Amino acid sequence: MSTATDLLSRDSGLLWHPYAPLDAGALYAVSGAGGAELTLRDARGAEHRVIDGMASWWSMVHGYRNPVLDAAAHAQIDTFSHVMFGGLTHEPAIELAERLVGLAPEGLRHVFLADSGSISVEVALKLALQYQDACGRPERRRFLALRGGYHGDTFAAMSVCDPVDGMHAAFAPLASEQLFLPRPPAAERTIAGDWLYDEDELELWAARARRLAAEHAAELAGIICEPLLQGAGGMFIYPPRVLQVLREIADEHRMLLIVDEIATGFGRTGKLFAVEHAGIEPDIMCVGKALTGGYLSLAAMLCTNKIARVLASGGATAGSALLHGPTFMGNPLACAVACASLDLLTSPGAADSEPAPWQAQVARLERGLNSSLAGARKLPAVRQVRVLGGVGVIQLHEPVKVAEVTRAAVACGAWVRPFRDLVYVMPPYICTDGQLQTLGTALTGAVSEVHGG
Question: Binding site, residues?
Answer without folding.
Answer: 57, 117-118, 150, 260, 289, 325-327, 417
